[in-house]
Design a protein that fits this description.
heterodimer, A: mainly beta, 5-stranded mixed β-sheet, B: mainly beta, 7-stranded mixed β-sheet, 4-stranded antiparallel β-sheet, globular
Chain lengths: 109, 117
């Protein structure tokens, strides 16, 4: 089975940096996905971490520690359009992705 | 990047009717597709795993006779909500897994908002 833990809600100011943490427990592990989902829309792919460490992709970076079962998504230079839910999903082989409840991020002026 | 097309984007139907939702992988072959359901402000819930050429695998609590899944080709999976009722009103999202030498990614369709009157 899987257990995924993320904060339910976060609020941050436009232009700031925010870190969304995710801890997980899985019976197997290949890598970890981060998705962004705006209200009423399907999730969009942000990142997939397989190895430990930080991967940077523009304003978004994702970090993984396999030994600790821990990941975070770092969003820099926040914009209003970044207000969305962010979903952390550990991936185990051929099993389907199971999502946690996600973190609802509100960016305020 | 890979694209998954889902159709229709919105359906309004009368109680008791059946609704079919299509999910296509446009530029890659997907032997496995997944169907999710999401209620407002709730998390994505996996309904079933659709396997090309074989029966779908349903998650616990999902009625397989009510949510019929057909995965007849490597690029198309369909979900039919049979005898829909108001409690079936929800956002249904399909996804397809693309496997390559760079690893695996899961791409989502744009979702179908089903409203049953």
């Amino acid at each position: 089975g899987q257990n995924i833990d993320q904060p339910t809600e976060m609020t941050a100011t436009e232009g700031a940096i925010v870190q969304i943490n995710c801890t997980y427990q899985t019976s197997g592990f290949n890598g970890l996905f981060w998705y962004q989902q705006h209200a009423g829309e399907a999730p969009t792919f942000l990142s997939y971490n397989v190895l430990d460490g930080l991967e940077e992709k523009g304003r978004f970076s994702s970090f993984l520690s396999r030994s600790k079962g821990y990941s975070y998504l770092l969003l820099k230079e926040l914009q209003m359009k970044d207000s969305a839910s962010y979903l952390c999903a550990p991936h185990s082989g051929n099993t389907p992705l199971v999502f946690g409840k996600g973190t609802r991020l509100s960016v305020i002026a | 990047g890979a694209v998954v097309s889902q159709h229709p984007s919105r359906v309004i139907c009368k109680s008791g009717t059946s609704v079919k939702i299509e999910c296509r992988s446009l530029d890659f072959q997907a032997t496995t597709m997944f169907w999710y359901r999401q209620f407002p402000k709730k998390s994505l819930m996996l309904m079933a795993t659709s396997n090309e050429g074989s029966k779908a695998t349903y998650e616990q609590g999902v009625e397989k006779d009510k949510f019929l899944i057909n995965h007849a080709s490597l690029t198309l999976s369909t979900l039919t909500v049979t005898s829909a009722h108001p409690e079936d009103s929800s956002f249904y999202i399909c996804s397809a897994r693309e496997s390559s030498i760079r690893g695996e990614k899961l791409f989502f369709g744009s979702g179908t908002q089903l409203s049953v009157l």
